[in-house]
Amino acid sequence: MPFEKMPVLSVDGVMIPQSFTIARYLARQFGYAGKSPLEEAMVDALGDQVKDYFNEVYPYFVASHQQKPAEELARYLVDSGLTWIDLFVVDHLGTLCGFEPSTLDGHELLSNLRKKVLEVPEIEEWVAKRPVTQV
Predict the structure, then answer these.
(1) 123/107 Cα distance (integer angstroms)
(2) Which residue positions in the chain have pLDDT lower than 70?
(3) End-to-end Cα spacing for the chain
(4) Lower CB density within 10 Å: C or N end of the chain?
(5) Beta bridge partners of 17
(6) pLDDT tens track for 58-74
């Protein structure tokens, strides 16, 4: 197995490693890579941006899965209180949970952050009356 790591896609006996390499290969095979070389480059850039994002947030998911003292489970991302980054993270977590409701299972810190932010009276009021949008 190449790189001794999953995932791997086998095509005509050739093992193709790495998730984004596999995604790009399949996109080219099925016509989803972009309609021109320039568009393909833009799609690849967006894919790389997503990969960079996942590399940045991964440590937070790992940290949230570890045992934490109770006082850490009831806080915002910075000690001074609610900030825009709490709102941004919670909004993103809501999107992820819309795709997969079990996203936060086992991630107590992130789950508690989401709950705490959504309990802010003004946010709770807005969420209750806002239009529901499909992701």
Answers:
(1) 22
(2) 60-74, 78-79, 134-135
(3) 36
(4) C
(5) 8
(6) 776 666 555 556 565 56
